[in-house]
Amino acid sequence: MNHPDPATGPVLLADRDPGGVVRLTLNRPAQRNALSADLLRALKSALTELAADPAVRVLLLTGAGPAFCAGHDLKELRALPDEAAAGALFGLCGEVMLALRRFPHPVIAQVHGVATAAGCQLVASCDLAIASDHARFATPGVNIGLFCSTPAVALTRTVAYKHAMEMLFTGDLIDAATAQRIGLVNRVVPTGELDAATGALAAQIASRPPAVLSLGKAAVQAQIGLNEAAAYADMSATMAKNLLMAEAAEGIDAFLAKRPPNWPAA
Q1: 121 Cβ neighbours under 8 A, 6+ residues apart
Q2: Residues near 227 by Cβ (< 8 Å), separated by ≥ 6?
Q3: Which of 74, 160, 191, 247 is most buried, judged by most C-beta within 10 A?
Q4: pLDDT grade for 216, boundaries at 50, 70 and 90
Q5: Which sign, positive or negative, has the C-alpha torsion 46, 49, 55, 58?
Q6: What pLDDT was estimated at residue 1?
Q7: Cα(257)–Cα(237) distance, rounded to whole angstroms?
Q8: What pLDDT sits at residue 9?
Q9: Crossing angle, helix 37-51 and helix 83-102, to 10 degrees?
Q10: Strands, E, within 127-266: which ranges?
Q11: CB 141 within 8 A of CB 147
C-alpha cells in the first residue's frame, strides 16, 4: 500500500503521458527519498501493476526534492528487531530491483542530486540512466560499517569489476562525468536540461514498436548468464521469432519502400 507521509502525501507518485511514458517519482524529499519499507512496497506494487498495463511503453524513475535516492532509511534499519526482519527488508529491496530488470518495457533513471547505496543500486538496475551534471553516486556503506552487499549485485552487473570494487571498498562519491565514463549512466546533461533530455529519450523509445522492445529486453537479460554458444543459440531463436512478427514485416517493407513504418496496434 502506498502509505502517505503527513508532509508530502503518498511515498510514490505516478504520472503518465498520452504516448505511454509513465513517470514514477520517489516522494520522500525530506529523507532524500530513502527507501523505507513503505516506499519499497509501493514500488513493487506499482511495477507489478504497470507491467500488466498494455498502454505502458516506457518507465521513468526519478525522485522528488533535492536528491534522487539516498539508499535505505537508516533509522528504520536500526529499529529492525532481528536478523529475520532485516533479511525480509533487504529481500524486499532485491525483489524491487529484479522487478526493474524484468519489467517488460525500457526503464530510464532520471538522476539528480545524490544516488547512494540502494539509490545507486536503483540506477544500476534500470536499463538506461540520464544524470544531471551535479549528480553524485556512491556505495558508502563501508563508511558506517555496513558493506553495500546488495547494491553490489546490480553494480557489478553494470560496470566493470574494478570500478565497482573501488566504489564498494572506498565508499567515495563519484561525479556524474565519472559515472558516465564507467558506464553507470548513459548521458550527463546540465541540470536545467535534465527533464527535457530524459523526456526526449523516453519519447523516442516509446515511438518504437513495444512488442519488439519487450521481446528484445527479455532476450538480452536471459542471455547475459549464458556462455557464448548458448547465447547465440538463444538469440538466433529470438531473431527468427522476431522476423515472423507483424512489426518486422511492416518495418522491413517500409524501409524497402522508403516510407515511414506504420506499426501495428499493440
Answers
A1: 71, 93, 97, 139, 148, 150, 151, 153, 154, 155
A2: none
A3: 247
A4: very high
A5: positive
A6: 42
A7: 27
A8: 84
A9: 30
A10: 128-132, 136-138, 174-175, 187-189
A11: yes
Tell me how far apart the alpha carbons of residues 124 and 119 are, in angstroms, rounded to a whole number. 9
C-alpha distances (whole Å) from 49 to each of 24, 39, 42, 131, 218 are: 12, 15, 11, 27, 18
Condensed to tens digits (0 to 9), the pLDDT of residues 22-47 reads: 999 999 999 999 999 999 999 999 99
Helix/strand/coil for 46: helix
Put the strands of the sheet holding 174-175 in their side by side order.
114-116, 136-138, 174-175
- Residue 123 to residue 151: CA distance in whole angstroms: 10
In Å, how far from its chain's centre is CA 19? 19
Q: Are strands 174-175 and 136-138 parallel, antiparallel or unpaired?
A: antiparallel
Q: Is 27 within 8 Å of 10 (Cβ atoms)?
A: yes
On whether the pTM is more than 0.85, the answer is yes
> How, if at all, do strands 114-116 and 136-138 pair?
parallel
Which regions of the chain does DSSP assign to beta strands (E)?
4-5, 9-10, 12-16, 21-26, 58-63, 107-111, 114-116, 128-132, 136-138, 174-175, 187-189
Residue 265: the pLDDT is 78
Alpha carbon 185 to chain centroid distance?
Answer: 11
* Cβ neighbour number for residue 184 with a 10 Å cutoff: 26
More confident residue, 154 or 8: 154
Q: Is pLDDT above 50 for 208?
A: yes
**End-to-end CA, the chain:** 30
